[in-house]
Please model this.
Amino acid sequence: MKYFVNDSCIGCGLCAMACPEVFEMNDAGLAIASKSEVPAEVMEAAAQAQGGCPVGAIENAD
Ligand code: SF4
Model:
């Protein structure tokens, strides 16, 4: 499982707070998702981050 942040991101930062192992903010203030497989121990947090995104910008990459 990997995630992808699409162009809808408004840079609220919620995903990076909910699951910093997978999501971080870039220099433009927008979220990016790790290109690595999501570790099993943070899968739930990553899913919550996806569900909590106010604009639905977090997609499953595979
Ligand atoms: S929660 Fe959604 S809108 Fe907010 S920073 Fe993450 S991807 Fe962007």
Notes: The helical segments are 14-18, 43-52. The domain at 3-60 is CATH 3.30.70.20 (Alpha-Beta Plaits).
